[in-house]
Amino acid sequence: MRFYCSDCGYPSKTCVCQAVETLHSDVHFLIIQHKKEAIHAKNTARLVCLTLPETRIIVSGTERLNQQVTDYLQQYQSPAVIYPSEGSVAIESLEAKPVREHDLFILLDGSWKQAFGMWKTLQQLHTLPQYHFDSAPPSEYEIRHTKFDKSLSTLEAVAYTLTNTCESSAAPLHRLQQKFQSFWQSPQAHRRNSEVSTNKVLKVQ
């Protein structure tokens, strides 16, 4: 029988509690997570919630998804989306200067195909400001295989957004992710490939 930590929710042998450093930020995050990603053992959205407890996760696949998202957005004055749409602006650019005025950022958590499907479904997000990453550092999340060199974990996407929008340090997020992946002994074939494509856009996983 496997025992789980009552605080972090992970198996006792892989408990990450000692690495959790709680952050409180004026910027909040909503992670809309594909239902298949929600059950993936290596998803990092759970780690984000441990570090930033104000973070909300809404899992797709229910008939009430659109209503849940709409209801949540009403709590904020200036929400925005981190998604590389045709109309998105690089979060690092001068054009994105108003980015610091947002009080909520929404991320779509899943594969490229899953994120695109959620994007098409959630039409209410299309009217919000949209941002993508042009200069994010390479991902340090090595335990999940990807073909895209600019793919970031959800945790890294949240951390990079924090770095560009407020003075909060993202270091606690990165340290927690490093602790989490230190427990995994997956084969090299299941890790990030050094020979990856050079897609411009952002994927979170």
From TrEMBL:
Under InterPro entries, the record lists: DTW (IPR005636), DTWD2/TAPT (IPR039262)
One short Pfam family name for this protein? DTW
Going by the UniProt record, its keywords in alphabetical order are: S-adenosyl-L-methionine, Transferase, tRNA processing
The EC category is transferase
Show the GO MF annotations: tRNA-uridine aminocarboxypropyltransferase activity
Instruction: Extract one GO BP annotation from the record.
Output: tRNA processing
- E.C. number, please? 2.5.1.25
Recorded family membership: Belongs to the TDD superfamily. DTWD2 family.
- Please state what the protein is called: tRNA-uridine aminocarboxypropyltransferase
Organism of origin is Alteromonas confluentis
Organism lineage string: Bacteria, Pseudomonadati, Pseudomonadota, Gammaproteobacteria, Alteromonadales
